[in-house]
Automatic annotation (TrEMBL):
ACT domain sequence ranges: 15-89
Pfam family, one: ACT_AHAS_ss
Top-level enzyme category: transferase
Entry protein name: Acetolactate synthase small subunit
Originating organism: Bifidobacterium aerophilum
Amino acid sequence: MANYPASQPGSKRHTLSVLVENRPGVLARIAGLFARRAFNIDSLSVSPTERPDISRVTVTAEVDDLPLEQIIKQLNKLLHVLKIVDLDPDTTVERELVLIKVAADQSNRSDVLEIVRLFRVRVVDVNPESLTIEATGAEGKIDALLGLLEHYGIIELVRSGAVAVTRGPRALSEKVIGSEITGR
């Protein structure tokens, strides 16, 4: 696919994990901060945590280190933001989900199913003219799968955006969970 995000010279991909109070408007303020600084968000995922009053926002973006430090400082000043971590790819498990509807009729279905088998992904819907495939994995695996399926004709696709946790027994929310939400 030709529409993957292009990185700026000198920038690198960062994954930020942001713990926030589960309140209206928090996501808009986070996205707005990136927009005001003219940084494009490559992926954005929001989900509840182990505690219902706290949500986790996972943001991936191509950013230089110095502007990233400024973004993190500004995020820390936002109302209802509890904790921000720039996740280290060497100590993080990161995955995303993609649903891909690919053209697959009698003439090419067996080829598409062979790709499904090789990538250890699942077919979740079958139609005489298409297959819908569900895949989870690292961004590189998803990109490679899409690259192979592109030849057959991708009818539709949706990617969840990255979600990530640090390796090992420690939780990002460890210090936050034990404290009271301040409502700053």
